[in-house]
Model the fold of this input.
Amino acid sequence: MDNPFKQLNAVEREVPKELKAKVMKDIAMAKLVMDIAELFSYNLGYVIDTVIETRDKNNNT
Done:
């Protein structure tokens, strides 16, 4: 049985341009979705915090 870690140092082969373009496009799309999700979750947390503070102020007066 061959050691799979020895294959990591093997000579790299060129990836077809179409496949490379597809993978890069998929990565870019995943990054976009993650950025949008982060933006939404950050703003949602801010909104919840603001609503709670406003309710506390209204209840205390």
Summary: Residues 15-60 form one domain. The chain has one domain: 15-60. The two ends are 76 Å apart (CA to CA).
